[in-house]
Design goal:
By secondary structure, this protein is an alpha+beta fold. It has helices spanning about 10-20, 25-30, 75-105; strands at about 40-45, 50-60, 60-70. The chain has a three-stranded antiparallel beta sheet.
Length: about 110
């Protein structure tokens, strides 16, 4: 059996294209009917890495929450694994924030304490 070759992304542009590829035409059609999430995970390109942040749009206002999580240029497989774990943490935070926002909107969480 052939071994799976892992591609290392050496520049921020390659990191962006590798971890956040443009959706295909079929994927765009499938995603068109899905309800939009109020919070999105976004990426800011830095000089040698990518910064991950949350983009919250609610009631006509936009807020940003920078997570202080970064995807680094991949020099070896350990950095690639670290980037994968960083993305998992970022998506976990994203899903927790969406769940909290949905609970707050449904009246499960008191707004006075926040």
């Amino acid at each position: 059996m052939a071994r799976k070759v892992q591609k290392l992304f050496k520049t921020p542009a390659e990191l962006m294209a590798g971890y956040f590829p443009e959706p295909t035409k079929e994927e765009k059609e499938r995603l068109k009917n899905r309800p939009k999430e109020p919070i999105k995970l976004r990426v800011k390109i830095l000089s040698n890495s990518l910064s991950l942040y949350l983009d919250l749009y609610k009631d006509g206002k936009r807020q940003y929450e920078f997570l202080k999580l970064y995807l680094n240029e991949e020099t070896d497989l350990s950095v690639k694994e670290q980037n994968r774990q960083t993305l998992e943490v970022a998506y976990t935070i994203l899903h927790e924030k969406i769940a909290e926002l949905n609970k707050r909107g449904a009246g499960f969480i008191s707004l006075r304490g926040k």
